[in-house]
Each structure stands twice: as C-alpha cells, then as structure tokens.
Amino acid sequence: MNRKRSRSGVSILELEIVAAKIRRNVLEICRGQGGYAAQGVALADIAATLYFDEMRPDGKGWFFDRFILSNGHDAIMTYGALAESGHYEMEDLKTINADGSWVDQSPIEGQPGFEITAGSLGQGPSQAAGLAWALRRQGSNARVHCLFSDGELQEGNVWEGAMFAGHQRLSNLCYIVDNNDMQASGHTRKIMSVEPVDEKFEAFGFKTRRIQGTSVADLLDAFEDARATTDKPFAMICDTKPWDGIDCLQKAQPLAHFTAKDAVKWDEGIAEIDAEIERLEAERTQ
Ligand SMILES: Cc1ncc(C[n+]2csc(CCOP(=O)(O)OP(=O)(O)O)c2C)c(N)n1
Ligand SMILES: [Mg+2]
C-alpha cells in the first residue's frame, strides 16, 4: 500500500473504504424519493479524497481549503461525504425531495458545506476563480477546488472564469470536471461535444491531468500535482460513468441523469456495496 502519496497520511485502502461508504450513503439517501444517485455514486472517490485527505481542517470542525460545488444537483455527493464525516445526519438527508424537507436537492449559499447557490448551472468556475484571486490577494494560502460537469462546459461563463484564472495564473485554484458524457437529455458527445476537454483548458493556461475519477490512486497523484503546480491553475479532468463503482445499477440504468425511486433496485446496489466494504475491510485487517 502506497501511503506516501496521500496528503494527510491516510492510506489508499482507507480512502477506498470511505468512498464505498459514501456510495452506500448516496443510495440510502435517494432510495426513498429518488435523486441524482448515479452521479453521487460515481463521484464518491473524488469526495473521499477531497474531504478525507486533500482539504485541510480549519480547527473549528470544518475545512480551511475551500470547495465550490458548481453543479448543484451533485450536492448528493457532498451530502454522502458530509454524512460520513459526521457533519450531517443520515435521518435528515433521507428526507431529500420530500414535501416540507429542509434538505435541498440543490442547496443555496450558506447551507453548511455549500459556498454558492448552484442550481443554475455554469456559475461555479468563475466564482471559484474570483474566490481564489481574493484569497491570494489577502495573503491566504487556502486552496480552492471547484467541481463542475461536462454539461456545464457548454456554458460561456465557464470559459470566462477559465480565461481569468489562466491570465491571473491562479495556482491556488483546482478545477475538477465530472466528465461523464451525460447531460439531462442524453450523451454529451451526441448533443454538443465538449472534447477535447484537457486541450481546451491547456489553451486557457491551465496545467491539466486526465484521470479515472474512480481511482483513488490517480486522484491522490493529481491533487499532489495540482499542489506542486505553482505558476498556473490546474484542471483535473475526471472521466466517470453514471453509477461508476456499482456494476449492477450501471447495467440496469446506464444513462441516469435523474433516478426515479422505482427506476432501479436499490437493495441490489446496497448489497453490492456491502460486499465491497466487507472485502476492503478484510484486506485492511490482513
Ligand atoms: C443554466 C441551467 N440550464 C439548464 C439547467 C437544467 N439542467 C439541470 S441538470 C442539467 C444537465 C447538465 O449536464 P450535467 O451537469 O453534465 O448532467 P449530469 O452528468 O449530472 O447528468 C440541466 C441542463 C440548469 N439547472 N441550469
Ligand atoms: Mg454530465
């Protein structure tokens, strides 16, 4: 097990276990009323790496480094992670999408863990660039991470933010792209291709790295590379697939922008995850 590559000293195996538990949380949160479960599952390794290794604690129970969620519907990823870290209660999160629930599917600025209102897509990258610029100006060494989607790459504001970040050489900024070839009504490559994503960000002055979004080892390497890049912003292009990490649900519903509560067999997915957690925990005790 390579322990050196993680920032905090946690092992790859530990982070894989956390990611599997986040996947389980996502399914448990969505099974009652449906939700953006396929994205939450696929982004669990990114969430585990970010929240449980990369972002430094602020000493007050939250994080010193910043995370901007641009694609508001992927709040499910954040909820899954912040339930695992003890910041949110699963019982509250399970009320998502229910009438009268305070748990927003796409949260607004100020809800714990959410810095911006992101239901209207395409706005996070420019806000993250502005935040990174302001923090640098204030002399802070906090890093700013921003997750956004391939669908959002079709919006002009994303590229205005990227142009500003490249021009300002914002080396404290790390974009994380959920490049899942899916948007609301089908495959991104068929509706309006955004490729080659890495070359586009390079042209805007970024250092880029294209990785498998479900590989903790790749993610740790990429975050290390981002931190070591001191003269330009960084873009991590994470190739993912809906439900990445749960084979039976991927097979059942390969294109899954929104998963209605009756669209998949949640129990089958949970059973697959439980078997995975058991296998990983057995490996840990070896
Ligand atoms: C500005 C804006 N336009 C349209 C929408 C409606 N919408 C919600 S999710 C979505 C899909 C966007 O693609 P992506 O985020 O890649 O979807 P995913 O991969 O998560 O399924 C759209 C068009 C929106 N929320 N905001
Ligand atoms: Mg997408």
Verbal overview:
44% of the residues lie in helices and 10% in strands. It has twelve helices and five strands. α10 links the parallel β4 and β5. The longest helix is centred in the last third of the chain and has 20 residues. The protein binds thiamine diphosphate and magnesium ion. Thiamine diphosphate binds next to loops.
Write the layout of secondary structure elements.
Elements: H1 12-30, H2 37-42, H3 44-54, E1 66-69, H4 75-84, H5 90-93, H6 124-137, E2 144-149, H7 156-167, E3 173-179, H8 188-192, H9 197-203, E4 207-212, H10 216-228, E5 234-239, H11 247-252, H12 266-285
Parallel strand pairs: 1-2, 2-3, 3-5, 4-5
Helix pairs in contact: 1-3, 1-4, 1-12, 3-4, 3-10, 6-7
The structure holds thiamine diphosphate and magnesium ion (MG).
- Main beta sheet: 5 strands, parallel
> How far apart lie the N and C ends?
12 Å
Number of domains: 1
Can you list the ligands bound to this structure?
A: thiamine diphosphate, magnesium ion
Uncertain segments are none
What is the CATH H-level superfamily? Answer: Thiamin diphosphate (ThDP)-binding fold, Pyr/PP domains
CATH topology: Rossmann fold
* Helix percentage range: 40-55%
Strand content: 5-15%
Can you give the mean pLDDT? 96
